[in-house]
Specification:
By secondary structure, the chain is mainly β. It has 2 helices and 19 strands. It is globular.
């Protein structure tokens, strides 16, 4: 989750020193929107996917949802989200629908970043530091032909090898494998993410580690951490 400074509105005399002015701000980011999962698995056998967004605060939020490609390209992702922009009152929940608008590969999964940004309302007669709260989750499209895919089973088939200061992870399965943790020779890798279908991902090895036993856990379709898997390099 990221906090993004949008703007601040200061209505005080210019005679005060900066420190005194900052002391008058009210900080309005104590609450956040609650998205109904760390990922949205879009079942290709259905016409649409959906995910909930809840506002546990008493303050209304303006909610905006956008999509990005994994590679950061500007090509428009093949989905529309409805509604893309809406007001969510305090202690209310809304269901957002995701609809595919263009063809995607039917022999492997596709994944995108889904950003849900909430901008809290603020009284116009108060000094405010207005903060937007953004939560990013994964949108994973799974073709109908892959219905019933077991990511734990597929994750157990990964192959590992060291290349210089990196760990190379090869995934021959048609699904994304999202890692929770990887350790090599008892030392945890600092930053691990995922390996795409039919691809190899590289992660930096801990200092001084060149090989040994590999232990790893992956994240399930519902966002839970699975059992330990073992390999070696």
């Amino acid at each position: 989750m990221r906090l993004i400074l949008l703007e601040y509105i200061l209505k005080k005399s210019s005679g005060f020193i900066v420190a005194a002015l900052l002391a008058t701000f009210s900080y309005n980011a104590c609450a956040t929107l609650v998205v109904g999962g760390t990922r949205l698995l879009y079942d290709g056998s259905k016409k649409e996917g959906s995910i909930s967004v809840r506002n546990p605060d008493n303050t209304p939020y303006l909610v905006q949802t956008t999509l990005d490609n994994l590679d950061g390209s500007t090509k428009k992702p093949p989905f529309v989200i409805t509604p893309p922009l809406y007001r969510l009152d305090g202690n209310k929940e809304n269901i957002m629908r995701v609809i595919m608008t263009d063809a995607l590969p039917q022999d492997k999964e596709s994944m995108y970043w889904m950003h849900v940004k909430g901008i809290p309302s603020s009284p116009s007669d108060k000094n405010t530091l207005q903060i937007a709260v953004e939560t990013t989750i994964k949108l994973i499209y799974r073709p109908a032909s892959m219905k019933g895919t077991d990511v734990e089973k597929e994750g157990s088939k990964l192959s590992f090898h060291a290349a210089g200061n990196t760990l190379q992870v090869t995934n021959k399965a048609p699904c994304f494998i999202n890692f929770n943790e990887i350790t090599v020779d008892g030392k945890k890798l600092a930053a691990v993410s995922y390996v795409a279908p039919g691809s190899t991902a590289s992660f930096a090895l801990p200092a001084g580690v060149t090989g040994g036993a590999v232990q790893y856990t992956i994240i399930s379709d519902v966002g839970a951490v699975g059992p330990d898997h073992s390999a070696s390099i």
